[in-house]
Records
---
Amino acid sequence: MSRLLLRALLRLYPPGWRERYGEEYDALLEEHGADLRTLADVAAGAVDARLGAGRMATRERRQRSALAASLWAAVAIAACVAGFQKMVEYDDFQSAAAHHPPVSAGRDLILGGAVVVAAAVCLAGLVLGSALWRDLRRRPRGELVRPLLLAGAAAAAFVLGLAALVAYAHAAAGQPVRDHLTIAVLGAWFAYSSVCVVLALSAAGRLVSRVSIDAAGLRRTVCLAWLGAAGMALIVAGMLVWGIALRLESAPLFDLRDGGLLATPTPATWGVELVVAAAALALALAALGRAVKPLRAPTQTDLQDRA
Amino acid sequence: MRASTPDPGTREFGRYADPALVVMTSLSAGPRHGYAIIQDVLAMGGPRLRPGTLYAVLARLEERGLIEALEPQNRRRPYRLTAAGAAALRVQLEHLHRVAERGLARLQAATA
């Protein structure tokens, strides 16, 4: 009974930890007695591994975590850019960009950054996708197939939801945006899409953490993630420039009370997009910074200094 | 005691700092796998390490480059001390040795 419980507790450790230590840990648990204190110790070890999964990462695990974090950041940035494009698709914003070069420069920075991020994500996806394909052809493993199926199903569900929203928008054309039914539909769509995106990204993160890829391939992918982060920086800079320039050059348009998404004030929509984009950039930079930070081992000088 | 101990490489181990010291001491005699480390630490008169604690320590030591994993043998993976680990262990043991010598000398002076 205790042994069964020990095995069950082993499942509490994070997948990356189990992949690295699982087999030898299981062998140790077989040899070790299974008293109550051992059960408590193993449970505490699982909590410690969960809390310290990132801290205890090796260089490779840090790189894989950075890739997964960059993917989350890229999706958040994509949502911001899509929201921005939706906000400025109207003639008055297009006209402001045409007449005020700083406003146009901000918009171009955002679009240029979006192209860079998209290119980086596609290229990194190609590298990881080909590694995944090789991996699956060599030995189809449940730990790869399950997240792959989940990611595909969640992405398909997202696309279906988007198609349904577009169909509703066509059907409801001409109705006020603040109509109760529209608000309810948009709220439901937002909740549904968020679940799809979170599921898809979590599954993609598991794939990134488990796919077999050599050190050179991983380095190339991390370099592409840095390129993506550079694109994100362009987007954040562009949003900042666009908002400030519009406020200076065309204050009445910037201060529109219903110029933002869903007829919200323009500054509110712009502010939210800017904050989310900046947070995504910070997330990507922090994760990528950790991936290149040297693992801490004491140097001879450290040892002499501390002695 | 822990706060004043020079602790190269294991400074951030918190409650795992003391188990890390005995694990490194065990590995200073040569590569050992998990169960052998537990037995050896007990034989040295150290604490009874349990699996959760042992692997929390091993993961930290490996991440710091103080120990390295060898090829597994029958699902058991031996670990050995790296050069950096040996140097770190030497510094810590020498410090503890000095503390012990001073403490004993003071006790002797007090009882003389």
---
Amino acid sequence: MTPTSQGAVIIGASAGALEALSLILPALPADFARPIYVIVHVPPDKHSMLADIFAAKCKLQAIEVTDKEPVTAGVIYFAPPNYHMLIEDETHIALSNEEEVLFSRPSIDVSFESAAEVWGSRLTGIILTGANHDGAAGLKAIAAVGGTTIVQDPVTAYAKAMPEAAVAACPQARVLSLPDISSVLQGISL
Amino acid sequence: MTDTFNKVEDIEIRLLLDALYHRYHYDFRNYAMSSIRRRLRQAKEHLNCATISAMQERLLHDRDMLPQMLRYLTVQVSEMFRDPSYFLAIREKVVPHLRTYPSLKVWVAGCSNGEELYSLVILFREEGLEDRTLFYATDINPEALSQAQAGVYDLERVRLFTENHRLAGGKTSLSDYYQTGYNRCVLDKSLRRNVVFSDHSLVTDQVFGEMHFVSCRNVMIYFDRTLQDRAVGLFKDALPRNAFLGLGAKETLRFSDHAAAFRDFIRDEKIYQRTSA
């Protein structure tokens, strides 16, 4: 058994992501037993501060992904600007320079779909606040392989479009507030 | 989509890659699976094949399928002076070293449609190094190579190219190097006078000469770790001590078997220098 074989968590967010993630990631315990992939729409410039910001706030290690990054439990992996982040297998991430999807690179759909292939029913997919429809198809793909799907309650979201599209595409998803998502995450790590 | 379906599809993908290799000698068998899977699904859909096996049958029996297949399997996404800070670093930090050599060889490995090649040629011309430099531009996709050789791009991309060139410390105006017409920008053929275009595979071919600088950006991200080691091994063999290797912004030699053969030269720009290891 690899150290991460229990499962993985993948989170997608866009407009309002920083605040939403700040209510979830820093609350995770230092012994959180799964890898966490995070895809946030960031401008294509080479430098994003996200990993640094959360490395400072979180008990878990947070890094911006480099191609073929080895994956271990208890680390938060941020998709880098201007690349798609593909989940290659349970222990590696591959980057891709393919065309933008829904005007986005990184694309939440691309990462979610690749993670669904690799992790199947052991994957938990979460869509947070955002102003476009990215992530809806990806969340649906996670539901199709029997994974757990969660969407931030659009009423509580800074931008509703993304969680609304995710719920429409994936009606079986649990619709929760950020504090409830935080509790669920702390629960699945046990 | 059930687990069984996915497993069958993975078998089909492996069989198609085998067929492609045995029939046409293009070897994608050690490419990163996540991206290959995604692109073969796109190909299947766009080429109206019910399954990947059906696509394999067409590929085996219809030679005209090959260029289409290669279009899906290779990624042709680039810009002139993409990541301007990379080119600025070459200009400010690498060029002073290159100046000390009487003649230079530069290899753009996986040159795609040529954007990066021409960026380097223009930079070398601006720095007065073009005349003593031989550029090798290689790719596995013949269609991309002829695009690169033609040096013709959509006019709408020129604004971005121009801005990138400026941010890369351009000393001339990019418009000095092209003419426009029919919504195209046609690069000056003088930019190709020291360029050799060639079909070369990092997967199956060997090194063809000693280089002073290899630029191979966002090519090896599509390889698995084994194949990456093979490609970096080629660069290691092509580069004598103190020669340079440039990679894409989010690539690294940190995980490579050959990591000890290189040291960080400009860490943030993924420019490495060959050690004596």
